[in-house]
């Protein structure tokens, strides 16, 4: 058997790669990444094949077809939510995804792909998969378009196995190369470790569903093993305020520092996200195992052992 992980040098992709190698020791795991946002240091210790190329390259798509993969874990994307170039975002995320699905069709490969809670915008909470969607930026719209194409594709090809995972706010090891797109958990932790005041938008009562990266990895594996189709949420089902996140970080580090609040400069901002996990439990048989009280301390231990915080500009 052979698995392909696109975006395998990235944050979620690299964590997934190592877990797949551990869970499926007899399966060949291949990485596809153009290293535009992924980083080679995320793959230290990986002994499998790495294909350097872009999902927007038709020759790469042809290579995927030739390889006859049993499963494609599609994590590659433009994840810069501040990138407003509509054509580039749609081509990288949506058009490339269509080609990957059509390549999978020829070999009957399972496709597990990364969608996003950005499709909901500031929609009703808790956010349910089939509620009206109001993406507020082109990144969210590109993921919305991917999900809509999935429904169409599965209607036309019911024999295929495709699952979309709407990630909520993911944090954890191997995200330190994401730069400005790194999680607020990492940014706040680094600020406090450097002796700075943690900075939050006024007044820190915004709420997000913070999900630990290894829970996301498990959701990918469960999606592959379930052989059920659909689009599901991947979160904890419990929104937490930004102030709560800071409190957990401070307790873990054993420090007491004042929070600095400032005006939110963004015209659009998701002030409250929370995943409804009803469909997730039904389709994947998966429930999250980690809340921030466990995830943040585990992450801080990893940061202390693996990261030179002075090289991070937070």
Automatic annotation (TrEMBL):
Keywords: Carbohydrate metabolism, Isomerase, NADP. GO terms for biological process: carbohydrate metabolic process. This is ADP-glyceromanno-heptose 6-epimerase. InterPro entries: Epimerase_deHydtase, Heptose_epim, NAD(P)-bd_dom_sf. The keyword NADP applies. It holds the Pfam family Epimerase. One of its GO terms (molecular function) is ADP-glyceromanno-heptose 6-epimerase activity. It comes from the Bacteria. Residues 4-235 form the NAD-dependent epimerase/dehydratase domain. The keyword Isomerase applies.
